[in-house]
Amino acid sequence: MIYEMVVVTNMAIAILFALSLNVITGFCGQVSLGHAAFLGIGAYTSTLLTKSGLPLTAALVPAALMAGTVGFFVGLAALRVRHDFLAITTMGVGFLFVGIVRKQDALGGEIGIAGIPAPDFGRPGLLVLSIVCAVAFGAFTVMLKRSWAGFAFNAIADDEDTARLLGIDVPKFKLWAFVIGTAGAGLAGALYAHQIRYIGPDSFGFVESITVLAMVIVGGIGSIWGVVVAAALLSALPQWFQFVENYKLLLYGLLLFTTMRFAPGGLASIVDRFKNRSARGS
Amino acid sequence: MLALDLLIQGLVQGSIYALIALGLTLVYGLLRILHVAHAALFTLGGYLGVLVTNATGSFLLAILVAMVTVGVTGMAVYRFAYRPLLGRSPLVALIASIGLFIASEELFRIVFGAYGLSYVDPPLQQRVQLFGDISLSVARIMVVVLAVVLLTVLGWLSVATRTGVAWRASVSDPPIAQAFGIDIERVRYLNFFVGSALAGAAGVMVALLNNLVEPTMGAVPSYKALAIIVLGGLGSVRGTLVAALSLGIIEAFGTIYIGNYLDRDAIAFAFLIVVLMIRPHGLLARG
Amino acid sequence: MSQRLSVQDIGVRFGGVQAVDGARFEVGDNELLGVIGPNGAGKTTLLRVITGVVTPSEGSVALDGADVTNWPTAKRIQNGLALAQQIVAPLRALTLIDNVALAVGHKHLMSPIKAALRFDRAPERERALDLLGQVGLSEVSDKWPEELPLGYLKRLEVARALALEPRLLLLDEPLAGLNQAEAHAMANLIASLPGPGLSVVLIEHNLGEVTRICPRLYVQNNGRPLAFGPTAEVMARADVRAAYLGAGK
User: Fold this and answer.
1) Model pLDDT, residue C248
2) How do residues B18-41 score in pLDDT, each as one tens digit?
3) What is the model's pTM?
4) CB contacts, 8 Å: C106 with chain A
5) Angle between helices B138-160 and B184-210 (to 10 degrees)
6) A143: how many CB neighbours lie within 10 A of its CB?
7) Is C103 within 8 Å of A164 when comparing Cβ atoms?
8) Can you give the three-state secondary structure of chain B, one letter per residue?
9) Cα distance between residue C62 and residue C6, in whole Å
10) How many pairs of residues across A and C have Cβ atoms under 8 Å apart?
11) Element (H, E) at C169
C-alpha cells in the first residue's frame, strides 16, 4: 500500500509541476528552460519553515509566494529578451539558482538538506494533499484557458507583435503567466520536499527542467489533459519499471526527439489527427 | 604573479570555449537553430581522441581522426535530425536538439561506461617555463595554438577561396545567396562539418587537459557555449570569439573573487543575464 | 479643433542612416489620405513611428491633439489607432470569427484579472460577424486562416483593425500581392471606410488605385517630404513624377 501511495503522490506532484509550466510555455508561448529552479525555491522555502516548527500546510502558501515573487522578477527580465534569447536566459536562471544554492551553507550547500520533517498527517494525508493541489491547479488552468485571459494568452503565443497591435498589453499578460506558473511550481516544490524528505541543489538542475518541459511538449503544448497524461506517464513509468528508471534519460531524450520529429503537437495533436481521420472516414 | 596566471588560464579556457562556440554560432547563423546537441559532438571528439591515441600511440593521428569523424557525424546530424525540421518553429528544433543531446550522453554512458576513459600515456605533459615563474604544460599551450591556427586558417579560407566566400554569403543572407546560385545545401553540410570538427578538436584537447573523458563532459561547456553565442549576439562570429575569450577570463578571475557566493559554472550565466538586461541583443549584436 | 493625426518634423536615424527627415502632414476627420513614394522612401519607417514601434529622434506625432510620440503601441491602440499590416498576420490558432472577436473585445483585456473572470464570447462574436460581413468575408467566418488565400487575409486584417473601433485606421500596402480585380475591389472597400469619427491613412504602391480613391496625397522621397495636397495637384508636379521615374537608379 505504501509503494502505491508513493507512486501516486509523485505522479500528482509531477502533474502539478507540469501544469504550472504549461501556463508559461503552453498558454503564453514563453519557453522556459529553467523551471526546476522554482520547484527548488518552493522546496527550500517550505523546508526552512517546517524545520523551524511550522506544519506543512502553513508552509505551502509561503513556498508558492516566494517562487511566484522570484518568478515575477524573472518574468521582468524575460520581457527584455525574445525567443531564443529567452530560452537561454531561462536556462541561465536555472543554473544561477543551482550555483547560488551550492554556496549557501544555510541551504545546506552542496550536500543539501536531509531529514525534512514528515507531515503530521503522514503518507495518506500527503497523498490527498498532493492530489487536491494538482486538481485545484488543474481546474484553475482550465478556467484560465476558457476565459478572455486565455484568449489573450493564445494570441500572445501565436504572434506577440500582432497581439500588441490588437491592443493587448503583452508585458502585463506575460508577467501574470510567469507569476502563476512559478507559484504553481513553488507549490509543487513544497510537496516534493516533504515527499522525498531530502533536497539538494542537484535535484533542481537543467535535467529536471528538461524533464518537466518534456512532459509539456509530449503532452502537447497548451493542452491541459495532454500534459496531465504525459506527466502521469512519464513520472510513473520509471517508478513502475526499474528498467525504465535505468534508461530514463535515454528514454526522455529519444521521446523528445521523436515527438518533435513526428508529432510536434504532442499527444494532443495525435489524438486530434486520429479524431479527424475517423470523422472523415465515416 | 596571480593576475597574469589567471589571465593565461582564462585565455586557455577561452580558446576552448571559442572552438566549441564557433560551431554553435555557425549553425545558428545559417539555420536559426540552437544546436544543443553540439555538446555530444564535442564529447565524441574526446572519446575518439583517447581511443585513437591509446590504440596507435599517435596523438596527431588522434586529432585528425577525431576532427574528420566528428565533422562527418555533424553532417549526419544535420541531414537526419535538423533538415526534416526546417519548416517548423525554432522551438521544435531546439527541443529535438535537447532530446538528441540527452540521448547521446546516455548512449556514451551505456557504451563506454559511466566512469570514463583516460589516456594510457598522456602526451604533451612536459612543462614549459614562461615569463616569471609561470609554467604551463605543452598541452595547455597547444590548446591556444590550435585554436589560433584553426581559426586563422578558417578565416583565411573564408575570404580567399570561392567556397569560403560562398559560405560567408550564405551565412549572412541565405535567400540572396541562393538567388545567386549558391548551393545552400552544400554550404549547410560544410557548415556542420567545420563547426563539428572544431568541437571535436576541442573535445580531444579537453580530454587531454583533464586526462579524462566521461559521458557528461559536454554538458557544462555546451551550456556555457550557448550563453557565449547569445552574448556574442547570436550568429556573429566575431561576437562569439570576443564573448568566448571574455568568458574564459571572467571565469578565471571570477572564481577567485566571487567564488564564495557563486559556483564557477554559474558565473557564465550571471554574466549573461546581466549583459542581456543591458543589451538585449548581445554584446556585439548583428545590425 | 485639432487634427485627427498630426505628424510634425519627424526625423529617424538608424546608426548612420537618416531614414526619415522632416516628415510632416495632417489628417482631419472623415478623410482618406494616401501616402506614396518610391521604394526606399522611408514610408515603412514613418508608419512605424506613427504606430509606436519606432521612436523618432526628432519631431512629434499627435492623435486628436494628444502627443503620443512616446506612447507604447498598445496604448495608442487603446486610444483610437489601428493598423492593418502589410504582411498579413492572422492568428493561426483562431478561426476568422475569433480573430475579429478578440479585437472586438480588446477593452476586456486591459486588466488580466478581469479578463480571467470573463468567459462569454457571444456578443463579441456577433459583432465580429457583422464586421466580416462589411469586408465581404461572412461566408468564411469559421474557417482557419491557413485555408484562405491572400486576398481574404488582407480583408481580415482590415476587419480586425475596424473591430478596434479606431478613429485613425492605418492601412499598410493592402493591395500588395493582389491581382487587378482583387485590388480594385479592395480599393473600393477602402474608399467606403472613412466617415464621421474615422479617418484612414493608406500607404500604397499601386498608384492607379491610390490616385483613384484618395482625395489627398502625401509624397515622401528618400526620407524627405516631397509634396502634400490634393491628388490632382500633387500628381501634376514634375518633381513628383521625376521621383517615381527616377526610382530604381
Assistant:
1) 40
2) 999 988 888 888 888 889 899 999
3) 0.86
4) 166-168
5) 170
6) 14
7) no
8) CHHHHHHHHHHHHHHHHHHHHHHHHHHHHHHCCCCCCHHHHHHHHHHHHHHHHHHHCCHHHHHHHHHHHHHHHHHHHHHHHHHHHCCCCHHHHHHHHHHHHHHHHHHHHHHHCCCCECCCCCCCCCEEECCCCCEEEHHHHHHHHHHHHHHHHHHHHHHHCHHHHHHHHHHHCHHHHHHCCCCHHHHHHHHHHHHHHHHHHHHHHHHHHHCCECHHHHHHHHHHHHHHHHHCCCCCHHHHHHHHHHHHHHHHHHHHHHCCCCCHHHHHHHHHHHHHHHCCCCCCCCC
9) 5
10) 82
11) strand C168-172
Residues facing residue B253 across a β-bridge: none
Grid coordinates given for B128: 614549459
Pairing of strands C58-63, C66-67: antiparallel
Nearest CB among A151, A167, A173 relative to C77 is that of A167
Digit-coded pLDDT (tens) for B270-281: 888 888 888 877
C169 touches A: beta carbon within 8 Å? no
Sorted by where each starts, the structural domains of chain A and their CATH numbers stand as 2-281 (1.10.3470.10)
Q: In CATH, which superfamily holds the domain spanning C1-80+166-249?
A: P-loop containing nucleotide triphosphate hydrolases (3.40.50.300)
Q: What are the extents of the domains in chain B?
A: 18-217
Contacts of A259 in chain B (CB under 8 A): 95, 99
Number of residues written out for chain B: 287
